[in-house]
């Protein structure tokens, strides 16, 4: 089993180029180290590994705050038609000089003093499972309120495995089989547990679009260059990109 850490003497693998479906995001900045690299068509498989019920879902191009004050971003990915790897970045939000390391399913990562197993890598997410019972308990802790404040106080709504929070978030989207339309008008769509979605780009000629998500003042997803038929995830709910027009991105809900 491979082990990687943010601290200690482990040698980190520097990311030389983002390939496959992955992209990094600091909330829309396309320049510098925090910008997204245009993705080539993903070779699959869509997912490798199995997601546990108590896993933290780190979404492509976004970050996730973890117990103990640390965090991790899903900065990039590679798929060769048989296997997948993911490039993770230290910290829940992009900052210059952050370390990056490449993992495969089954690897273990250490985010300042807290150990996690990489249980699943998908084109749209990486699922980390806490090794320590206290970290699993912290992730599942119920927030004081289900009312978002649109800021850092929403951590308990945005970075959680609590069933009530996830159910509340899921109810804010169209039902399974129905479509969510995101307009490319610069507007922000807000949802019950503090999540907000925006369309960052649409290129009808290329057949690609970008959708960004923020929660608790953290860019939690940055899906760049997604195409019709690809999967994206928000607040634990899966969608398929079902249509792209010059005015909107349409997402059909595929999970309950």
UniProtKB/TrEMBL annotation:
On whether Signal is a keyword of this UniProt record, the answer is: yes
Q: Which of UniProt's keywords are assigned here?
A: Signal
In this chain, the stretch annotated as Disordered covers: 26-46
Q: This chain belongs to which protein, by name?
A: Lipoprotein
Domain of life of the organism in this record? Bacteria
Organism of derivation: Streptomyces chlorus
* Signal peptide extent: 1-23
């Amino acid at each position: 089993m491979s082990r990687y850490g943010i601290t200690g003497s482990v040698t980190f693998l520097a990311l030389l180029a983002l390939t496959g479906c992955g992209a990094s995001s600091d909330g829309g900045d396309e320049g510098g180290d925090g910008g997204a690299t245009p993705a080539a068509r993903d070779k699959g498989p869509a997912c490798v590994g199995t997601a546990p019920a108590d896993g933290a879902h780190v979404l492509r191009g976004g970050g996730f705050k973890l117990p103990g004050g640390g965090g991790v971003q899903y900065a990039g990915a590679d798929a060769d038609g048989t296997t997948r790897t993911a490039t993770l970045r230290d910290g829940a939000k992009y900052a210059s000089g952050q370390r990056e390391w490449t993992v495969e399913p089954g690897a273990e990562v250490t985010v300042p003093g807290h150990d996690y197993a990489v249980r699943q890598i998908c084109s749209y997410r990486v699922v980390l499972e806490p090794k320590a019972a206290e970290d699993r308990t912290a992730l599942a802790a119920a927030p004081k309120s289900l009312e978002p404040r649109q800021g850092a106080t929403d951590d308990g709504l945005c970075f959680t495995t609590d069933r009530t929070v996830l159910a509340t978030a899921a109810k804010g989207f169209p039902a399974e089989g129905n479509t969510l339309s995101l307009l490319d008008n610069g507007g922000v769509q807000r949802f019950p547990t503090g999540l907000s979605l925006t369309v960052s780009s649409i290129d009808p000629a290329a057949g690609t679009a970008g959708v960004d998500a923020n929660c608790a003042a953290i860019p939690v997803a940055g899906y760049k260059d997604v195409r019709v038929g690809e999967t994206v995830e928000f607040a634990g709910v899966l969608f398929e990109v079902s249509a792209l027009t010059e005015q909107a991105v349409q997402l059909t809900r595929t999970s309950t």
